[in-house]
Design a protein that fits this description.
This protein has helices at 9-20, 33-42, 48-61, 65-70, 73-80, 87-102, 111-115, 122-131, 142-151, 161-174, 180-193, 212-215, 271-280, 340-344, 352-364; strands at 233-242, 247-252, 263-264, 267-268, 289-290, 294-297, 302-311, 335-339. The chain folds into two domains: 9-221, Hypothetical protein, domain 2 (Endonuclease III, domain 1); 233-364, Alpha-Beta Complex (Nucleoside Triphosphate Pyrophosphohydrolase). The relative contact order is 0.11. The longest helix has 16 residues, at 87-102. The radius of gyration is 24 Å and the shape is globular. The protein has 15 helices and eight strands. The strands form two sheets. Strands 1, 4, 5, 6 and 7 form a five-stranded mixed β-sheet that branches. The chain is an alpha+beta fold. This is Adenine DNA glycosylase. It is an enzyme of class 3 (hydrolase). GO terms for molecular function: purine-specific mismatch base pair DNA N-glycosylase activity.
């Protein structure tokens, strides 16, 4: 056990949780492995206030593993659109199908089986086992990394393997021998509500008296930030193609890559490439209208989006053809035409930038 570990850490934290923690979150009601699993996946890199409406809608449509497994990927992703990190939704769906096929539809109860499911790592498995199955397992999500980095004044970026291993050791040491389900929720709550990334509320922290970062009067120094690396900037031209029935042409993106499995606008590497495509299929590229560009940022790069609008209701001689837009492959992409209203209602999963463009188009009509 660490020489720095105060024996009262868990006790102080649980006392605080009993009176100040969050006890009415949707996934804290009718607790079972499925409900906790879905919440933990949604909460990865996403704040609670953002997740709550998505979680409620998701659980209403997919109340159990069987319902989720039987749904189409398109149905699942339509409930995920706007949450980002879409691989989480795809993996959730795949895992549900695996549970039906390999675990007789019952969520597994042992660590190895749980981490063997797509999209579940050590911390997520620990949270499920602790909260839903009352087994003693530590967690180390972003909130916990921040709490421990500050409490023990850990110097180094938590994403570094050596630092992460140290944090895992401390996380396990601090986890009590009883009430570990409450403790798991408590330490996540501490990071989410008091020990926040910016402007931490140290005054009300239950473990402030033993926090080394607080004693150093340099709390925001921890955790150390990831070494700075300039994000590259990429360009994309998106074609908003509207037919005589006021429908928008979308195609389904490949499973791998950004917005995997979602329906998106035809994408081109340049304005000229879009013109050439329209010319090849007999459309009037002279009717293209350029909209203002905007930037969408991913975890690893910026994407400058250049929208191009084509109203085919005012263009004569246009033929509806199957799409052949390229995203580094020569495969024909599944194509569909959808009303703006159906897209804004979430009837199919579309990326956030496309939602933004559909809202703009809707406002102009």
């Amino acid at each position: 056990m660490s020489n720095q570990q105060p024996p009262q850490f868990a006790t102080q934290l649980l006392d605080w949780f009993d009176s100040n923690g969050r006890h009415d979150l949707p996934w804290q009601q009718d607790i079972n492995s499925y409900r906790v699993w879905v919440s933990e996946i949604m909460l990865q890199q996403t704040q609670v206030k953002t997740v709550i409406p998505y979680y409620r809608r998701f659980m209403q449509s997919f109340p159990d593993i069987n319902t989720l497994a039987e749904a189409s990927q398109e149905q699942v992703l339509s409930h995920w659109a706007g949450l980002g990190y879409y691989a989480r939704g795809r993996n959730l769906h795949k895992a549900a199908q695996l549970i039906m096929a390999e675990h007789n539809g019952v969520f597994p109860k042992d660590f190895d089986s749980i981490v063997g499911l797509p999209g579940i790592g050590r911390s997520t498995a620990g949270a499920i086992l602790s909260i839903a199955l009352n087994q003693r397992f530590a967690i180390l999500d972003g909130n916990v990394k921040r709490v421990l980095s500050r409490f023990f004044a850990i110097e180094g970026w938590p994403g570094e393997k050596r630092i992460e291993s140290k944090l895992w050791l401390l996380a396990d040491e601090l986890t009590p021998k009883q009430r570990f389900d409450d403790y798991t929720q408590a330490i996540m709550d501490l990071g989410a509500t008091l020990c926040t990334r910016s402007k931490p509320n140290c005054e009300n922290c239950p473990v402030q008296s033993s926090c080394l970062a607080f004693k150093q009067e340099d709390v925001t120094k921890y955790p150390f930030k990831k070494p700075k690396k300039e994000k590259p900037i990429k360009q994309a031209w998106l074609l908003i193609r509207q037919n005589q029935n006021a429908q928008i042409c979308l195609y389904q993106r490949p499973q791998k890559g950004i917005w995997g499995g979602l329906w998106s606008l035809p994408e081109f590497e340049s304005y000229q490439a879009c013109e050439q495509y329209l010319q090849s299929e007999g459309s009037c590229q002279q009717s293209l209208i350029e909209w203002d560009s905007f930037r969408h940022t991913f975890s690893h790069y910026h994407l400058d989006i250049h929208p191009l609008y084509l109203d085919e209701s005012v263009v004569s001689g246009v033929k509806d053809q199957r799409a052949h837009y390229n995203d580094d492959s020569n495969e024909e992409k599944p194509e569909g035409w959808y009303s703006i209203q159906s897209l804004l209602k979430g009837e199919v999963g579309i990326p956030a930038p496309v939602v933004k463009l559909m809202n703009r188009l809707d406002e102009t009509k």
